[in-house]
Amino acid sequence: MKNTVVKICGLQDVEVLKSMLNLPVDYIGFVFANSRRQVTAEDANILLEQLQDWQHETRPESVGVFVNPDIDFLSKVMEQAPLDVIQLHGQEDAVFCEEVKRKFGVKVFKAISVHSKGTENGSELMEPHVIANDYIGVIDALLLDTFDPIYGGGSGQTFAWEQIPHYQNWSKEHGVPLFVAGGLEPNNVSELIAKYHPYGVDVSSGVESNGLKDIEKIKAFTERVKQI
């Protein structure tokens, strides 16, 4: 079976990125949305320069994470930090995703927020919106993350994994790679992959200590994903 793709998100520290140069990481994510991990375009450009020195056989692609941005803001970021992928984490519709893809010539990942168990109405899952077929042929990947009412994601909490097949069926039917995020860490990622075999996994807070990226946790997470 092909190795699961690894995305390490929320990078801010140049030294941490330098320490990752030999790891088999596929995507590096930078958060431009409101978050404690938020970076500026200037910050991201400095971090992007480090990717030129990547020593593993495959250099990771850079991903910018945005929540309901406008085209002007994206343009300003892309002028200073030429990203490979724009990940849209808000309520962006397929028309906007297509405009982003056409204007910037990048891959577009669309995030879907999934509620965790135990919602206020007692149901196990509440879908904020249904996947629309309008996205077919527009987005390059679908990413599932735990619903967060403030930031849209990055909560560090898992969602109801048993709902993954619902999205996975859609993903396979339309040839859209599926990433899973939300509360992943070195201790639970093996279970996720063994049960659901997603195309990729996305981690941020699960490889942090005291709110900062921890290179030992990043190594452990990557090793556990790639050894499966």
Can you walk through the features of this model?
With 228 residues, the chain is α/β, with parallel strands linked by helices. The chain has a single domain (5-226), classed as Alpha-Beta Barrel (TIM Barrel), CATH 3.20.20. The protein has helices spanning 14-19, 41-51, 71-80, 94-104, 164-174, 189-196, 215-226; strands at 5-8, 27-31, 61-66, 85-88, 107-114, 141-146, 178-180, 200-203, 208-209, 212-213. The strands form 2 sheets. Strands 1-2-3-4-5-6-7-8 form an 8-stranded parallel β-barrel.
Observed structural traits:
two-stranded antiparallel sheet; TIM Barrel; 8-stranded parallel β-barrel; 228 residues; single chain
Outline of this structure?
It is built from seven helices and ten strands.
> Which value, in Å, is the CA radius of gyration?
17 Å
Q: How much of the polypeptide forms β-strand, as a percent range?
A: 15-25%
**By CATH's scheme, which homologous superfamily applies?**
Aldolase class I
The count of domains is 1
Helix share bin: 25-40%
**Assigned CATH architecture:** Alpha-Beta Barrel
What is the first-to-last residue Cα distance? 9 Å
Residue-averaged pLDDT, rounded? 88
Q: What is the highest CATH level, the class?
A: Alpha Beta
Pathway: Amino-acid biosynthesis; L-tryptophan biosynthesis; L-tryptophan from chorismate: step 3/5
Pfam families: PRAI
GO biological process, one term: L-tryptophan biosynthetic process
Domain N-(5'phosphoribosyl) anthranilate isomerase (PRAI): 6-223
